[in-house]
Amino acid sequence: MYMGLQFLSRMILATATLLVFCVSMNAISDDVVSKVVEFSASTIEKISSQEPILGKLYVAKDKVRIEMDIDGKRRIIIRDFSARKTLHLDLADKKYMEVSWPATKFNQLPSSVKRPPLPGDSDHVCAKLDRFKCSLLSEEEKINDRKTEKWEIVQVIQANNKQSDKTRTVRSLVWVDRELGVNVREEMFFDANSKSLRELRAIKEGLQPKALFQVPTDYRRVEMPGPRSHGDNMQPIK
């Protein structure tokens, strides 16, 4: 997605490597925590003719919980910005993995952390890179009863062959919710027969229960598989 709130694709969610909420993964400051709007939402991602991926998103002041059904399995990822770690929960076997984030320089937090810019912001990619062109199509359009701005983003991609002058144009429609500071809907068109949809639905603002971001007491902790590990060959931590 173009900044803002980012959904996980099938591959990225399976490997749990992508940050979902719009705050730096390396650090978080008290200033940013105070500005975050807590909310929950249902998520949907649909790519061309594939079956849609459904899930849930829970956003607290300094934590994010992502739930999605992938290949019949419920996957849960919890990102804790204050503790600087990510939790991966396995519901079927009642186990979890904990991954600490790399230390920052001198292990210090910056004085402030900004949300990634949204379309229309002076530091958005459209204002910085010529290959992106943004156009405001509507200043006020309702998406699931929420006020949004509708933007068109056009990106021109050069062919892989540097000797070729051929280019490919990717067009996206983005609905920006300024109150939440995220994109609540995106439609991306790669060509006449290829389209993707990502959307937040049933958004509910309000404080999120602390239990959502905690590991259940009956779960056991396991180690992250090493480079040569296969499948579920994970050893419990003693």
- Average pLDDT level: 77
Strand arrangement across the biggest beta sheet: 7-8-9-10-11-1-2-3-4-5-6-12
Low-confidence stretches: 1-32, 109-114
- Order of helices and strands, N to C? HHEEEEEEHEEEEEE
Q: In what range is the share of β-strand residues? A: 35-45%
CATH topology: outer membrane lipoprotein receptor (LolB), chain A
Largest sheet: 12 strands, mixed
Measured as a percent range, the helix fraction is under 10%
Organism: Candidatus Kentrum sp. TUN
Protein name: Outer membrane lipoprotein-sorting protein
Description:
This protein has a twelve-stranded mixed β-sheet with strand order 7-8-9-10-11-1-2-3-4-5-6-12. 7% of the residues lie in helices and 44% in strands. Residues 1-32 and 109-114 have low confidence and may be disordered. It is mostly beta strands and 238 residues long. It has one domain: Lipoprotein localisation LolA/LolB/LppX (outer membrane lipoprotein receptor (LolB), chain A), CATH 2.50.20.10. This is Outer membrane lipoprotein-sorting protein. It comes from Candidatus Kentrum sp. TUN.
